[in-house]
Amino acid sequence: MLACFAAAGAIDLNDLLNPDAAILKKPAPAAKSAAEPAPAPAARPTPAAAPAQPAPVKTTVSAQQLRPAVKAANEETARLEAERKAHERERAELEAKLKAAADAKAKAEQEARAAEAKAKAAAETKAKAEQEARAVEARSKAEQDARVAEAKAKAEREAREQRDKTEREAAQAAEAAQRKIDAEREARAKAEAASRKARGDLVEAEAERSQLEKERAALEAKLKAAEEARAKAEKKAADAEAARKKSEEEIGDVAKKAIAERQAREQAEAAARAAEQRADNERRAAEKAVADKAAVEKRLNYMMNPDPDERPDPPKKDAATNAPVVPAAQQPSVVAKESAKTVSKPKEAGGKGKGKGGAKGAAAPKKELTGRDAVITAERTDYDRKEGVILFDRNVHVDDEQYQMHADRLFVFLDGTNDLKRLVAIGHVAITNEEKTAYCARATYSKLTGKIVMYSDDEIKARLCEGGKKGSTVVGERITFWVNSEQVEVDNPVISLPGGALKGGDAKDLLQGGGIGAKPKGGQKEDQRDRKKDDDQKGGKK
Amino acid sequence: MYKTLIMSIALAALPVCAFSSAQWLAERNDDGDMLRLRKAYEQCMARLESPAENVVFPLETLPDGTVKSRLRARRAQLFIDSGLIWGEGIRVEQYGKDGKVDSFLEAENCIVDRKTKTGWVEGDAMMSYGKSTVKGRGVHFSVDREFIKIFSKSEIRTTGLKIDPAKTLDIGTRK
User: Which residues are registered as beta bridge partners of A478?
Assistant: First the structure.
């Protein structure tokens, strides 16, 4: 609107705003005022820019003309003043708002700073807490590590102690082993010394033995010479005896022919009486045999039964053994019946089969040996390997393929190689095979001499029974049997023969040719030595 | 003269070296150790708990380390306080120089005292050495003194008691 005014009247606005000044002013050159364009209002002037107004243009206007303009200018001024005031108020409000905003901003910034500080403090607190937690964790870990290390150190210490202990024990064991080795070495040295000494003694004994052998050879040579001289003398005596017998026979032939007829007549009568007596004896023997058969079988079962549990106890006193034995020359038939109790069945069968073959034919065919083991049973057994002694006690039964033996007690003596050296059976000793039976109180067998000796005591007499048809029996204080030479020696013998045994050549066979009562060569000396040994053993027992 | 002197010395030495059966019997009749082991056996049976099974260990070794004898047991237990060993199903084998079994002992059950080296077999026992076999029930044995006592049902099978293997016991045979 101001621009319109300027364009229409070429009046300066400043003059309009200040009419007094405009009136008093001198007019400006026209060219210059016409040439200069009026500045275009770019924008509404700010209160600050208001004082810097251009210098007023001096025009010549009447007051009347200027009244509306002044009024408008006043109004405009008032309006501008109002606007200025509004602007000031607005500015004040804005400044207040600005101030409030600044305050709010400052407050916000302060709060932000406070929050930041708080957050920072919280972060520091958290960091501190984390640091403390890490420190605690590190401390606990360190403590755990320390405990582990301590346990490890303890285990190592224990292991070291255990190792030291083991080493000490090993050292002690090694020392003990060394001592043992030393002791064994000393013992071995002693044994070697003893062995050397024994070898020395053995050499001396060998020298003595060789000396004795020489002496024995010399004595045997002398004995042989004496035997030869004795044989020559006996031969001469036999020749002389034969010559004497021949002359006597020639003298007695005449007398024999005279008495031959008388003897034949007497023999016929005696044969008739003997036949009658034999028939009577056979009848009584048949009756007796039926009664004794059960007893014989019972006794046979007792002797052959290998089972000790089923075997009855041996009788304390054998009636047959203790029965008074009558010499055979007085009552041969009675003794024959007694001895028949011990005859075994196979022998009887063999005797019948052989007929009157006598004792020579009594040898039944021997059964074939299988070589089975001997079985020894007893209630108690003591085996002493150091002494080489085995003791079988109570109800001893030896079941061998070749023989059977019962006894109350049996000693078996072994040598250094565990071979049989000596046997001693004590108490109710009974030995039997299928042909012979022996009873005694005590029996010994020595393998070195090959001799069996049977002894009597107050209750039981040593008794040797031969089975078979004739059933001869030998009773004595002591019966010695040589296994190798099969010869028998009897002290204080009582020989019982069956009836009719002394007829014919049986008696001669019995008493001659290494039969009962014959002694082997050198048997007397061995007998003396055995007696001395037995006496020594008895003395040792007492 | 010399022979007489030798004979007199031999006869004088005979009673000293002779076996004294009375003394030997007195020692054999001493059953104190057997009674002690029998009592200990009953006590061990009462205390028996979780014995080891299938036990095998050597008993003796030769100087070169070779096993001389070995014990096998189906079950066994060691009593440390008393030094006793209880075993069941025992088999003791002794080996020869060629490594083969020379002899063996089988026992149903037994107890062994390691201090005295003695033992007691309560049940059946069987021992075999060479061609001989020994059986029995109730056996007392000593390793040091090398003896065995069989108290019941003793039975020995052997070939060593032949009086004369070449001849029968033909007592009284006439030629």
Answer: A455, A491
Structure tokens at A372: 């089975």
- Residue B107 phi/psi, 5° resolution? -135, 145
Nearest CA in chain B to A508: B174
Torsion angle of the four alpha carbons B63, B66, B70, B72, in this order, in degrees rounded to the nearest 10: 140
H or E segment to which residue A217 belongs: helix A63-304
Q: Which amino acid is at A361?
A: G
Distance CA B31, CA A295 (A): 41
d(CA A156, CA A167): 16
- Rounded to whole angstroms, how far apart are CA atoms B109 and B41? 10
Alpha carbons within 13 A on the beta-carbon side of A427: 15
Contact between chains at A539 and B155 (C-beta distance less than 8 A): no
Compare CB distances from A215 to B3, B145, B160 and report the shortest one's residue. Answer: B3
CA–CA distance, A41 with A80 (Å, rounded to integer): 15
**Looking at the partner chain, which of A363, A384, A420 has a beta carbon nearest the beta carbon of B161?**
A420
Q: Domain boundaries in chain A?
A: 2-105, 325-541
Inter-chain touch B28–A536, beta carbons under 8 Å: no
Q: How far apart are the first and last CA of chain B?
A: 41
Contact A389 B19 (CB under 8 A): yes
For residue A382, the chain B residues in CB contact (below 8 A) are 28, 147-150
* Both structure tokens of A242: 């034969």
* Tokens representing residue A518 in the block: 């014959």
CA trace torsion B157, B159, B164, B166 (10° rounding): 130
Q: Is A164 exposed, middle or buried (0-12, 13-18, 19+ CB in 10 A)?
A: exposed
d(CA A224, CA A227): 5
CATH number of the A325-541 domain = 2.60.450.10
* Residue pLDDT tens, chain A, 542 long: 444 444 444 455 555 555 555 455 544 444 444 444 444 444 444 444 444 455 555 555 667 777 787 888 888 888 888 888 888 888 888 888 888 888 888 888 888 888 888 888 988 888 999 999 999 999 899 999 999 999 999 999 999 898 888 888 888 888 888 888 888 888 888 888 888 887 877 888 888 888 888 888 888 888 888 888 888 888 888 888 888 888 778 777 777 777 887 788 788 888 888 888 888 888 788 777 777 776 666 655 555 544 444 444 444 434 333 333 333 333 333 333 333 333 333 333 333 333 333 333 334 455 667 777 888 899 999 988 888 888 999 999 988 877 889 999 999 888 777 777 888 999 999 988 777 889 999 999 888 888 889 999 988 889 888 765 567 888 999 999 887 777 888 988 888 877 655 554 444 444 443 344 444 444 444 445 555 555 554 444 33
Q: Which of A258, A281, A307, A510 is nearest to A406 (CA)?
A: A307
Domains of chain B: 32-157 (2.60.450.10)
In this prediction, the answer to ipTM > 0.95 reads no
CB proximity list for A69: less than 8 A, separation 6 or greater = A5, A16
